[in-house]
Specification:
alpha+beta, 6 helices, 12 strands, 33% helix, binds zinc ion
Length: 263
């Protein structure tokens, strides 16, 4: 499970607006969070296969028991209202203003944790909320930052959308676990896309590929909606080896296993 809790014991972070160094453009990925060679490979993948369109639900399911969608921007999670904010354009000024409205709980959606200022910002947020949890999807590059109960006004005045450095030192253990997660994701992503492009080059493999993609999508959907059927005898004709996931899948109950099933 990929959940990371940022706790700073509130007064641990010494931070002032005057510490902020601004920039004119987006930050580059940081070596403390990602292996540069892997990032280059990742960026070179042209038409990546997108698995699952319910990543928000996947990640919410890891921490909340009851999930009710009120509208596109508001969810009722374990009986508390949460405002959903997108941080895809990495604009700090906008996100910071949005975190100061009438809501007290927020879910920030962002695509990756590759840049240092972004981690610094989420780290600083732990000063202003009762808890800040980072939840990472196990399927695609997709991150939720769950900010529970704002305890004081977010009185950081951010003057520009692009930030080079908040000049706050993020805890080493947090950086390490994010880097491990990023690496695992990139490695899988690069491998899967390599396998798929190899399969596409051989006509006989294309039908296998379709079967795999179809079943994997079905598996993700069932996994997210907690619908995996465990009442199954896993008959041999339903079981095949998935090159993409590196394991056996039963097409009927969608159970995955690394061990060959013996009949
Ligand atoms: Zn089965």
């Amino acid at each position: 499970m990929s959940i990371l809790t940022i706790s700073t014991n509130n007064s641990d972070i010494q931070f002032e607006e005057s510490y902020i160094t601004y920039s004119n453009s987006n930050s580059r990925p940081s070596k403390s969070l990602i292996v540069p060679e892997m990032y280059t490979l990742f960026k070179s993948i042209k038409d990546p296969l997108i698995f699952s369109d319910s990543l928000l639900l996947e990640c919410l399911n890891y921490t909340f028991r009851s999930i009710i969608k009120i509208n596109e921007n508001v969810y009722l999670l374990d009986q508390e209202s949460y405002k959903i904010l997108n941080f895809t354009d990495k604009k700090f000024k906008i996100i910071n203003e949005n975190l100061n409205d009438k809501y007290v709980n927020y879910i920030i959606i962002t695509n990756d944790l590759f840049t240092y200022p972004k981690i610094q910002y989420f780290y600083i947020l732990a000063n202003y909320f009762e808890s800040v949890d980072i939840i990472m999807s196990q399927i695609m590059s997709y991150i939720l930052v769950v900010c529970k109960k704002r305890v004081k006004n977010l009185n950081i005045e951010i003057k520009n959308n692009y930030i080079k450095d908040f000049n706050v030192k993020v805890d080493e253990n947090i950086l390490k676990s994010i880097k491990t997660n990023n690496n695992t994701f990139l490695e899988n992503y690069i491998n899967v896309n390599k396998k798929i492009s190899n399969m596409c080059s051989s006509l006989s493999n294309v039908s296998n590929l379709n079967r795999e993609i179809y079943t994997i999508n079905k598996y993700y959907k069932a996994f997210i909606n907690k619908e995996c059927n465990i009442d199954c005898n896993c008959k041999p004709n339903f079981i095949f080896y998935s090159d993409i996931l590196n394991c056996y899948i039963c097409e009927n109950c969608l159970v995955l296993t690394r061990l060959p099933l013996i009949f």
